[in-house]
C-alpha cells in the first residue's frame, strides 16, 4: 500500500518539480560551507596541503553533514522503518553531544585574511564555487557595499550584494539550511506529539478522547505567531526556540487525523485479532495500527512544513528573526528597510520562499490525490 | 415460442485496464423468452455481472469493448444502437436492480421523489400529480408496509429489505419488459430474501415481464428460474432448464459447484457412519450434564449499548444487543450460533472473548471467571480462546508479513524457545491449513480470499487454543472455497481437540458442520439443541420461519 502511494504520488509533473526543488535545497543546505565560503577548500603552500574550510567548520555544519550521511546510509540499509527512525534519533543525539564537545572552530573569523597573502600566495588552491561567506562583508573592497548583480567587473556577484556588502547568493545558499531545518524539525516535533495524543485518543476513546479533544481545541485557539512574538520579546532570538514553539503549537491537526484513523482502525478485524491474541498495547498501537493509519499524515506534514517555513520567514521579516545568520525572511526585511529599492535583494529570497512553499504544497497535493480512493484512476468494475 | 425478448449471441466483453486486457465474457450465448426467468449463476469473477451490465450497455465506454457478438433486444442490437436510443430503452424497457441496497438509492432525496423522477424521465408528458399517484401505486405494488406514509421517507429511514423494495418499485414503475436483477437478495437476511423473491415472482406473474436473474446461490436459482446458465471464467459452461441443470448437471464444473453446496455436503456427511458417534455424544453430555466436560459457561449475559441524547448526553435507553443469554458449550463440540443480521450473535461472540465489555452476567472458561478481569489479567488467558473473522480483506494486517502475523503472538506469550522454533511452529500450522511454507514470506494482498481465511484460521490456531469463535468465516467466500474451509475445519477440530462457536446465518453450513445449534433472535436465545433436532423439528415460531425461508435445492 505504501509503495503504491509513493508510485501514485510520483506520477504528476508538478510533484516531480517539487521534489527536484526540495532536493536542490537539501543539497545546498547540507553542503553550504563547501559551496559558498571565503576560505579555500584545498590549498598547497610550500608543498604542504591543507583544507582551511575544515578548520572553520562549526559544530552545526558538522552535525548537518553527519546526519545527512547517516540518513543516506540508513535509507540504503535493508532495515524496517521503526529501526531506521530509532537509529537516526540515536545517531542525532550522539552527534549533537560529540560535535558540541569536540568541534571548536576559531572564535574570531576575519574573512579579510583569506584574501591576504597568507592564503593567496600559494602553489595552488581550490576555492568554493561562490568564494564569499554569507557574513563576509567584503570590508576590504568598497566603502559602499551595495552592488547590483554582475555590476562590478572585477568581482563576480551572481545575485549582487546587500547593503553591508555580503554576497546575496552566498546568503541564499546558507539560508536554505534554516528554511529546511525549521520546517522539518518543527513538523517532526508536532507530528510526534500529535501521533502520541491522537493515537491514545483514538484507541481508548471515551473519557481519554474527550479530554484530548478539549486539549486539541485549546491549542487550536492559540495564535502561533503572537505566541512566537511574545516569546522572542521575553527570551531573545533563537532558532531552536522557534522550532519548538511552532512544533508545540501545531500538533492539533495531526492529532485529529490520527485519532480519526485510529477510531476506524480499532474496529478492523486484524486489530481485534491482535487484541484477542493478547499482544502488548505498544505492539497493537505501533505495529498494527499506526502503519495503517499514517497515510493522511503525509499530506498534513507536507503542508505543515510549508507553514512552518512561512512562520519563520514572517518573524524574520518583522525583524524578530536571527541576528547574524542569514534567512530568507530577514533578507526580505533588509530589502524593505533599505533606503532605495534594490530589486535583487527582494526578488531572490522572495522567490525562494515562494518556490519552497509551492513545492511542499505540490507534494502535499500529490499525496492527497494518491491517498484519496475517489480520485483513483482505475474505475472499479467487478462482477 | 416465437422470437425471444432477449437473445445474446456469442457475446465477448473485454475490459481494458491500464494496458491489460481482461477477457471478462467469452463467447456467451443465451436467450430469454417473454415472461421467463433466466438465471446466470457462477462464482465471483465468473463474468455474470459483466454480462448483465453488457446487456444494459452500462459498462464504461473507455474500458469495455465488445470484439464480437450481438445482444438482440426485441430484434434491436444493443451493441450498435446510438447512445440516445439506448437511453430510451434503459429504465423504460430494461430495468436493473443491484445488490447493495445501501448505496443504490440517493441518500439526499426521499424515496417518493426518486420514483417520480424515474417516471417523469421516461414519460415527459406525465403531470406531477399523476407521477406521484403512480409512484404511490408502485410502492403499494411492492408491498411496502404503510406505503403512502412512507412516500417522503429518506433511504436511511428504511431497512435493507425495504430499500430493496423501493429499488424494485423504481425499476418496475415504468413497466419494463426485461428486469435485470444483479444479486438483489445477497445482502439481505434469509427471511427478507424469501419475501423479496416471492414479491418478484408475484410481480412477474402480474406484469408478464422477463427477468435476467444473476446470483451465486443455487437455492435461489431453484426457486426463481425456468432456465439457468452456469458461468465459469467468462464462459457459459452449461445452459438448460433448471430441473435438468440442478438434478443432472452434465458439465464437470456444475457438478463440482453443486457438490460444494452445504446442503449437499451435509447429505454426504451424514451418510457416512464415522461421524455418528459425535452426534450421540451430544445427547450424552446434555442428558448427564457433566460439569467436567464443560468448556465455557455463560450465565445471564447482557451486552447493552447506551443510547445517548440531549445536551448532557444522558443515557436515555439501551440497545440490548445481547439480552440475558445463558449458554453452555461442552468441550469438543461445534456449536452453531444462528440468527439474522443485528440479532446480537457477533456481539455475543466478541463478548465471550472480552473484546466487547459485557454489561452484566458471567462468562467462565474452564471455571475461570472472565468478566471484570483487567487487560493484564486476561493476557495469560488469551491463548486459550481465539477468534477468526468474516472479512478476508480486513482480517489480516496488510503491512505485516504472514510470518510476523503468526509468530508475534507466540513471542508475546513466550511460547517457543527462539525465533527458529516459533517459525517452525508457524510453518506447521500453515501446513495444517494446506498452505506452503513460502506463504510465510508473503504479504496478505498476495493471497486469494479463501487463502486469507485459512491464514486467519492459522493465526487463531497458532497459540494452540481450546476454543475458537468463528465469526461468519465463510460468508464472504464462494461456495466451492467455503466447502474447502468447512472440510478443513472438521479436520483440524479432530486433530487439535477444538471447541468451536460457529457464528453464521447460513443454515446449510449449520447442518453440515455443527453438533449443536443455538438460534438467536433480537438478543435472546429462542431455541437450542442438537442440530438434527433444531433443523429437523424446530419448536420455536421464529426458528420455523427462518428454516422455511431458506432457499433449498430440494424444493424443485
UniProtKB/TrEMBL annotation, chain A:
Gene Ontology biological process terms in this record: transmembrane transport
Pfam families: BPD_transp_1
Residue ranges of the TM segments: 17-36, 56-78, 85-103, 178-203, 215-234, 240-258, 296-323, 343-363
Domain ABC transmembrane type-1 span(s) in chain numbering: 176-364
Membrane topology type: Multi-pass membrane protein
PROSITE patterns (alphabetical): ABC_TM1 (PS50928)
An example Gene Ontology CC term for this record: plasma membrane
Compartments where found: Cell membrane
Main location per the UniProt record: membrane
Keyword tags: Cell membrane, Membrane, Transmembrane, Transmembrane helix, Transport
PANTHER family assigned to the protein according to its UniProt record, in alphabetical order: D,D-DIPEPTIDE TRANSPORT SYSTEM PERMEASE PROTEIN DDPC-RELATED, OLIGOPEPTIDE TRANSPORT SYSTEM PERMEASE PROTEIN APPC
Protein family according to the UniProt entry: Belongs to the binding-protein-dependent transport system permease family.
The name this protein goes by in its record: ABC transporter permease
Organism of this sequence: Thiothrix fructosivorans
Lineage: Bacteria, Pseudomonadati, Pseudomonadota, Gammaproteobacteria, Thiotrichales
UniProtKB/TrEMBL annotation, chain B:
SUPFAM superfamilies xrefs: P-loop containing nucleoside triphosphate hydrolases
Pfam families in UniProt: ABC_tran (PF00005), oligo_HPY (PF08352)
GO biological process, one term: transmembrane transport
Domain of life: Bacteria
Domain ABC transporter, first and last residues per copy: 6-258, 298-547
UniProt GO molecular function: ATP binding; ATP hydrolysis activity
Alphabetic keyword roster: ATP-binding, Nucleotide-binding, Transport
Family listed: Belongs to the ABC transporter superfamily.
UniProt name for this protein: ABC transporter ATP-binding protein
Lineage: Bacteria, Pseudomonadati, Pseudomonadota, Gammaproteobacteria, Thiotrichales
Amino acid at each position: 500500500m505504501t509503495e503504491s502511494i509513493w508510485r501514485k504520488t510520483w506520477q504528476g509533473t508538478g510533484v516531480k518539480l517539487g521534489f527536484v526543488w526540495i532536493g536542490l535545497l537539501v543539497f545546498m543546505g547540507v553542503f553550504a560551507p563547501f559551496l559558498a565560503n571565503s576560505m579555500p577548500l584545498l590549498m598547497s603552500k610550500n608543498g604542504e596541503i591543507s583544507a582551511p574550510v575544515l578548520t572553520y567548520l562549526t559544530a552545526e555544519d558538522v552535525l548537518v553533514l553527519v546526519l545527512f550521511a547517516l540518513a543516506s546510509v540508513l535509507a540504503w540499509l535493508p532495515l524496517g522503518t521503526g529501526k531506521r527512525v530509532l537509529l537516526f534519533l540515536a545517531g542525532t543525539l550522539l552527534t549533537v553531544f560529540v560535535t558540541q564537545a569536540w568541534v571548536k572552530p576559531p572564535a574570531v573569523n576575519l574573512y579579510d585574511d583569506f584574501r591576504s597573502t597568507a592564503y593567496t600566495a600559494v602553489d595552488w588552491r581550490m576555492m568554493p564555487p561562490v568564494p564569499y561567506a554569507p557574513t563576509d562583508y567584503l570590508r576590504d573592497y568598497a566603502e559602499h557595499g551595495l552592488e547590483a548583480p554582475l555590476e562590478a567587473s572585477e568581482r563576480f556577484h551572481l545575485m549582487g550584494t546587500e547593503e553591508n556588502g555580503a554576497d546575496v547568493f552566498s546568503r541564499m545558499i546558507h539560508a536554505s539550511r534554516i528554511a529546511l531545518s525549521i520546517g522539518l524539525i518543527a513538523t517532526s516535533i508536532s507530528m510526534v506529539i500529535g501521533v502520541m495524543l491522537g493515537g491514545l485518543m483514538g484507541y481508548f476513546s471515551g473519557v481519554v478522547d474527550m479530554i484530548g479533544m478539549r486539549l486539541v481545541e485549546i491549542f487550536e485557539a492559540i495564535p502561533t505567531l503572537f505566541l512566537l512574538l511574545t516569546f522572542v520579546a521575553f527570551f531573545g532570538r533563537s532558532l531552536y526556540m522557534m522550532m519548538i514553539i511552532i512544533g508545540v503549537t501545531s500538533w492539533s491537526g495531526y492529532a485529529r487525523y490520527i485519532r480519526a484513523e485510529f477510531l476506524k482502525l480499532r474496529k478492523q478485524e486484524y486489530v481485534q485479532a491482535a487484541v484477542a491474541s493478547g499482544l502488548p498495547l505498544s505492539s497493537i498501537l505501533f505495529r498494527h495500527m499506526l502503519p495503517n493509519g499514517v497515510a493522511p499524515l503525509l499530506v498534513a506534514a507536507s503542508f505543515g512544513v510549508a507553514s512552518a517555513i512561512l512562520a519563520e520567514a514572517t518573524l524574520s521579516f518583522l525583524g524578530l528573526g536571527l541576528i547574524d545568520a542569514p534567512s530568507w525572511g530577514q533578507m526580505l526585511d533588509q530589502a524593505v528597510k533599505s533606503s532605495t529599492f534594490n530589486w535583487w535583494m527582494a526578488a531572490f529570497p522572495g522567490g525562494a520562499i515562494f518556490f519552497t512553499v509551492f513545492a511542499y504544497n505540490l507534494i502535499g497535493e500529490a499525496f492527497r490525490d494518491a491517498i484519496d480512493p475517489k480520485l483513483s484512476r482505475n474505475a472499479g468494475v467487478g462482477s | 415460442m416465437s422470437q425471444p425478448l432477449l437473445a445474446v449471441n456469442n457475446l465477448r466483453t473485454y475490459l481494458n485496464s491500464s494496458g491489460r486486457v481482461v477477457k471478462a465474457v467469452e463467447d456467451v450465448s443465451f436467450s430469454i423468452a417473454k415472461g421467463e426467468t433466466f438465471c446466470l449463476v457462477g462464482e465471483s469473477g465468473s463474468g455474470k455481472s459483466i454480462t448483465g451490465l453488457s446487456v444494459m450497455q452500462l459498462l464504461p465506454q473507455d474500458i469495455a469493448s465488445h470484439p464480437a457478438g450481438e445482444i438482440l433486444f426485441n430484434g434491436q442490437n444493443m451493441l450498435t444502437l446510438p447512445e440516445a436510443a439506448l437511453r430510451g430503452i434503459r429504465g423504460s424497457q430494461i430495468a436493473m436492480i443491484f445488490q447493495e441496497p445501501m448505496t443504490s438509492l440517493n441518500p439526499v432525496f426521499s424515496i417518493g421523489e426518486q420514483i417520480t423522477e424515474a417516471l417523469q424521465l421516461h414519460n415527459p408528458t406525465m403531470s406531477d400529480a399523476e407521477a406521484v399517484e403512480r409512484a404511490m401505486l408502485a410502492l403499494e405494488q411492492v408491498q411496502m408496509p404503510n406505503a403512502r406514509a412512507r412516500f417522503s421517507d429518506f433511504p436511511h429511514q428504511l431497512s435493507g429489505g425495504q430499500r430493496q423494495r423501493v429499488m424494485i418499485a423504481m425499476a418496475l414503475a415504468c413497466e419494463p419488459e426485461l428486469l435485470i436483477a444483479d444479486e438483489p437478495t445477497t445482502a439481505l437476511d434469509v427471511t427478507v430474501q424469501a419475501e423479496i423473491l416471492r414479491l418478484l415472482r408475484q410481480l412477474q406473474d402480474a406484469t408478464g415481464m422477463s427477468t435476467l436473474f444473476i446470483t451465486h446461490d443455487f437455492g435461489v436459482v431453484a426457486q426463481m428460474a425456468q432456465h439457468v446458465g452456469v458461468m465459469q471464467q467468462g464462459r457459459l459452461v452449461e445452459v438448460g432448464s433448471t430441473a435438468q441443470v440442478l438434478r443432472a448437471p452434465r458439465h464437470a464444473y456444475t457438478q463440482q459447484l453443486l457438490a460444494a453446496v452445504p446442503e449437499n455436503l451435509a447429505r454426504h456427511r451424514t451418510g457416512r457412519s464415522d461421524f455418528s458417534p459425535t452426534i450421540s455424544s451430544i445427547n450424552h453430555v446434555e442428558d448427564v450434564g457433566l460439569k467436567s466436560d464443560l468448556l465455557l459457561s455463560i450465565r445471564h449475559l447482557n451486552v447493552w449499548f447506551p443510547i445517548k441524547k440531549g445536551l448532557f448526553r444522558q443515557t436515555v435507553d439501551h440497545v440490548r444487543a445481547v439480552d440475558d443469554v445463558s449458554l453452555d458449550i461442552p468441550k469438543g463440540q461445534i456449536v452453531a450460533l444462528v440468527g439474522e443480521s443485528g440479532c446480537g450473535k457477533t456481539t455475543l461472540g466478541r463478548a465471550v472473548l472480552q473484546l466487547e465489555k459485557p454489561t452484566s452476567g458471567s462468562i467462565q472458561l474452564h471455571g475461570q471467571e472472565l468478566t471484570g478481569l483487567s487487560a493484564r489479567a486476561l493476557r495469560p488467558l488469551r491463548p486459550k480462546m481465539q477468534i477468526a473473522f468474516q472479512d478476508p480483506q480486513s482480517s489480516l494486517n496488510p503491512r505485516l508479513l504472514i510470518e510476523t502475523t503468526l509468530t508475534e503472538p507466540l513471542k508475546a506469550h513466550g511460547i517457543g524457545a527462539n525465533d527458529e522454533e516459533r517459525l517452525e511452529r508457524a510453518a506447521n500450522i500453515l501446513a495444517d491449513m494446506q498452505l506452503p511454507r513460502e506463504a510465510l514470506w508473503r504479504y496478505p494482498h498476495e493471497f486469494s480470499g479463501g487463502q486469507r481465511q485459512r491464514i486467519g484460521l492459522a493465526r487463531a490456531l497458532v497459540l494452540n487454543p481450546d476454543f475458537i469463535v468463528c465469526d461468519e468465516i465463510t460468508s464472504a467466500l464462494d461456495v466451492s472455497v467455503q466447502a474447502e474451509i468447512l472440510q478443513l475445519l472438521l479436520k483440524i477440530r479432530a486433530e487439535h481437540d477444538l471447541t468451536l462457536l460457529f457464528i453464521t446465518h447460513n443454515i446449510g453450513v449449520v447442518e453440515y458442520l455443527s453438533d449443536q445449534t443455538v438460534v438467536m433472535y433480537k438478543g435472546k436465545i429462542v431455541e437450542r439443541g442438537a442440530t438434527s433436532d433444531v433443523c429437523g423439528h424446530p419448536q420455536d415460531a421464529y426458528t420455523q420461519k427462518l428454516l422455511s425461508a431458506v432457499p433449498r435445492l430440494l424444493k424443485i
